[in-house]
Every structure is written in structure tokens, then in C-alpha cells.
Design brief:
The protein has about 290 residues and is α/β, with parallel strands linked by helices. The protein contains nine helices and 16 strands. It folds into three domains: about 120 residues, D-Maltodextrin-Binding Protein, domain 2 (3-Layer(aba) Sandwich), CATH 3.40.190; about 80 residues, Periplasmic binding protein-like II (D-Maltodextrin-Binding Protein, domain 2, 3-Layer(aba) Sandwich), CATH 3.40.190.10; about 70 residues, Alpha-Beta Plaits (2-Layer Sandwich). A five-stranded mixed beta sheet has the order 4-1-5-12-6, sandwiched between helices. Strands 9-8-10-7-11 form a five-stranded mixed beta sheet. The chain is globular. The chain starts with 5 loop residues before the first strand and ends in a 6-residue tail after the last strand.
Length: about 290
């Protein structure tokens, strides 16, 4: 029985580059992604298809795609009935969740959502925004925005816009009133595809490798040689929660110590390890880290 082809939705646009880089770190080589909606991949049983993140959950739900990567926000906006395989904490700018925020111009007198009663709100996230105001029993008119939503903040009463760093809001002299929704990237699957043994295994394999690539992004490997007499002192320098590997060397007076650490800690540890007696200290990046 031949293996089935897995149709995989890749988000086009702002998240595309970060997604392709993540797949590359996970061991998949995706090419021609910027020039084609059907990029090539070095796995004959996967067919990547580049689509807008806003559409992917709908296409996964109805079976046009077997699986895909999209935001939690668009799953909620579309009300898509899909399997959420895993959360992928990465984005185009930071590793923090993106936020859809209710914002108004700095000069606006609005301080709370309630003050927008009877007003007009522009957003691309129409359904989620309507539910937000309905839950607060605030009557507003929510209009779909075709982009450049920050500019419309002075044409309507408020906007609901996506932000990661807040820099675009600041640049447009806008002020956040409230957070409507926090969103991270999700790897999702069609329910029938998930029930298919071959496709489910393929989806799970991709999930494991993508998460391993994400976990490795903020870690480094650290290797050093240590005299046996200095070993206790060196091990005390290493973070207590880490369990280093200690190996014998040809020179019986020395051992090799290897550990994986958080990257920000590296610059603090290396001088301390050197003072504790470690030598031949090497650090190296990690492609994947599987727990």
C-alpha cells in the first residue's frame, strides 16, 4: 500500500518566512516558497500549499487540506472544527503570543470599552470582536477592515488590531484600551485525516520535529574538559536543574562534561567555568531538542 500524500497548509504573508525557517530547522527543506503557492519540499509524501493564514482553518476543516499552520485567532474567527495538534510558540517578530487589542487615538477620551457604546469598530477579526462586545453587553457596530486599520482609528470610534510589539500602534499615536484575544500559532489537522493511521503518523512526526526545533532555538550545547580533581567545583557552577553528561577521556586525569543550557546563561557560565578549572570549553547551536 503506497503512502498517502499529506496536503499541508503553510501560511503565506507575514508568517511565511518564519514558518519556512522553522521547517528548515526541523529537517525539512522547503524551496521556491516566495515564488510559488506550491513550493517544493524534500519529502515526496508532503505537498505544501501556501495560503493566507486567515483561510487555512476553513480549508483544513472541509478537507481541502489535511493539516496546516495558522493562528488561534483565525480558528476562533472562522469557528473551525479541527484537531489542534500542538501549539507552536513562534511568530514573525517574537516568541510571545500576539494580541488583538482594542485601541483608540491618544487624543480620544475613551478609557474603557463601555465608553464605545453605540460606536463603530473597524477590524479584520469581525466575529471575535462581536463576541467580545456581546459578552460585555456593549452595543457597537463592527465593520470589516480591508487593511491599514491603524489609519482608520481616527475615522471610526475604535479599532481592534493585531500587535506583537506595539510599535505600529505607537507609531500611529494609538493607545490600547483592552486586550480582545491572545493568539499563538497552532498546527491543526482535519478530523478525517487525523483518524487515518498513515496521515496521523505523518502529522505527529511533523509536530514532534517542529516542537523540537522551537525548543532548541533558545538553547546551546556546552562541552568542556575538566580535571577529575576540579569536577565537583565545575558541577556546582552549572545550573542545579541541569544533569550534565560526564564521560571518560583517553587522559585518565580528565573527564569530558557536556550539558544543554539556556542561551542567555552561556555568557555568565563560561567565565565561571573557566575559573573553576574547566578547559577546552566549546559551545554549539542546536537544531532540534526532543524531550
Amino acid at each position: 500500500m503506497s503512502e498517502a500524500i499529506l496536503k499541508l497548509g503553510i501560511p503565506a504573508g507575514s508568517l511565511q518566512k518564519a514558518t519556512i525557517e522553522l521547517f528548515n530547522r526541523a529537517g525539512f527543506n522547503i524551496s521556491d516558497s516566495e515564488r510559488s503557492y506550491l513550493p517544493s519540499i524534500d519529502d515526496e509524501y508532503i505537498q505544501p500549499i501556501c495560503l493566507r493564514a486567515q483561510e487555512i482553518s476553513r480549508y483544513v476543516e472541509n478537507g481541502v487540506l489535511d493539516a496546516g499552520i495558522t493562528g488561534h485567532d483565525w480558528i476562533m474567527e472562522n469557528g473551525s472544527d479541527v484537531v489542534e495538534v500542538t501549539e507552536l510558540v513562534y511568530s514573525k517578530a517574537t516568541n510571545k503570543p500576539a494580541r488583538w487589542v482594542l485601541a483608540v487615538p491618544n487624543e480620544s477620551k475613551v478609557k474603557t470599552p463601555k465608553q464605545l457604546e453605540g460606536g463603530i469598530i473597524a477590524t479584520e477579526l469581525v466575529n471575535v470582536t462581536k463576541k467580545y462586545f456581546d459578552a460585555k453587553k456593549i452595543k457597537v457596530k463592527v465593520e470589516f477592515s480591508w487593511g491599514a486599520t491603524e489609519i482608520k482609528a481616527r475615522l471610526v470610534d475604535g479599532i481592534v488590531e493585531l500587535t506583537e510589539t506595539g510599535s505600529s500602534l505607537l507609531a500611529n499615536n494609538l493607545r490600547i484600551v483592552d486586550t480582545v484575544l491572545q493568539s499563538t500559532t497552532r498546527f491543526i489537522a482535519n478530523k478525517k485525516s487525523w483518524a487515518d493511521k498513515q496521515k496521523r503518523e505523518k502529522i505527529e512526526n511533523i509536530s514532534i520535529l517542529l516542537n523540537a526545533a522551537i525548543d532548541a532555538r533558545t538553547r546551546v550545547g556546552l562541552k568542556m574538559n575538566v580535571k577529575k580533581g576540579d569536577l565537583k567545583r565545575v558541577l556546582k557552577v552549572l545550573p542545579a536543574e541541569k544533569s550534565p553528561t560526564v564521560s571518560s577521556l583517553a587522559d585518565s586525569d580528565y573527564v569530558a562534561v557536556e550539558v544543554i543550557i539556556d542561551e542567555p546563561v552561556e555568557r555568565l557560565l563560561i567565565p565561571a567555568l573557566k575559573r573553576a578549572g574547566a578547559s577546552g570549553i566549546i559551545t554549539y547551536p542546536l537544531n532540534k531538542l526532543i524531550h
